[in-house]
Amino acid sequence: MKKVIVSGMRTTGKLHLGHYLGVIKNWVKLQDDYDCYFFAADWHALTTKYDDTNELRQNTIDVITDWLACGIDPEKSVIYVQSLVPEVAELNVYLGMITPQNWVERDPTLKDMAKILKTKEGQGSQVNYGLMGYPVLMSADIMMMNADLVPVGSDQVAHIEITRDITRRFNNLYGEFFHEAQPLLNECALICGLDGNKMGKSFKNDIKISDTEEETAKKIMTAITDRSRLRKDDLGHPDECEVAFKYWQIFGSDEEIARVKEECEKGLRGCAQCKRELGAKINSILAPIRERRRYYEQNPQLVEEIIRTGSQKARQRAGEVLDKVKDLVKIYK
Ligand code: SF4
Q1: Residue 161's domain spans which residues?
Q2: How far apart are CA 74 and CA 67, in angstroms?
Q3: Is the whole model's pTM more than 0.85, yes or no?
Q4: Whose CA is nearest to atom 4 of ligand 1?
Q5: Beta-bridge partners for 79
Q6: In terms of domains, do 143 and 176 share one?
Q7: Is residue 193 within 6 Å of ligand 1 at its C-beta?
Q8: Is any ligand 1 atom within 6 A of the Cβ of residue 260?
Q9: Measuring from atom 1 of ligand 1, which residue has the nearest CA?
Q10: What confidence tens digit (pLDDT) does each residue in 77-130 have?
């Protein structure tokens, strides 16, 4: 029996290289060794985007199309949409009943989400009820599939602590049933945005998986370099090249990185030329992903079928788990 993994992504728009390198690339590897359940978290998107839902449905399709393009294989993994598995909402109710308020308030997920909400114009510091419940809903997502493992970055281990607490509380109250999901650490490259800050759509510093070659090449030309370097033959400092050299270290081969470093330090490489080469390099790595993306874009019925089939599979497992939960809680059936 393979161990079960659950992981999801909020459906707030097309994905960028930060998502690919930090999350999806790892998922692609995991799907060979585990029973993977990957979900598009449209309810979680609503916790902060409740006032602008025009693109919510399309965002869900875009996120899943990006996953497929990156190599998430519906033959190996269950790909589903959170709202197409209503059992999650029901489990969320039962878990909400046993979760003390102060557990939710101290949860780092809620704090991160509250930050997003605070930046919304006119929101002040208001946190809506749905957002307050975000950590419980996240726990319901994980426990719905009775997951063994949740892939997380080293900075996110604390995020699933509440799920483990809720699991223990449920098992103590009603009887041992749920697995206590363990964090599975990602060994992923972290990529900053073109301006050196965290990569994000709202910061307009991202490169999207769905960007064209031309768009990517153009964006790379805006990447921050060694700020002290004014002319091509100035001696460069790759370690102080805030973005471009960091990208080389992620995407280049060992030989390429060594060559860029040496030529930069000797003043033999201009930043414009360096970034042109970097753009070509990144485009060559993304070429097969973009080709797959085009294929799915041209066959939207295929994406729809994958979503429906995956969500049915997820519902089946969710139904079994929920049935057991109802027995344990002794709810009327
Ligand atoms: S030559 Fe390349 S590595 Fe050196 S500072 Fe310019 S962009 Fe950065």
Answers
A1: 4-191+300-329
A2: 10
A3: yes
A4: 264
A5: 38
A6: yes
A7: no
A8: yes
A9: 271
A10: 999 999 999 999 999 999 999 999 999 989 888 877 777 776 665 555 578 899
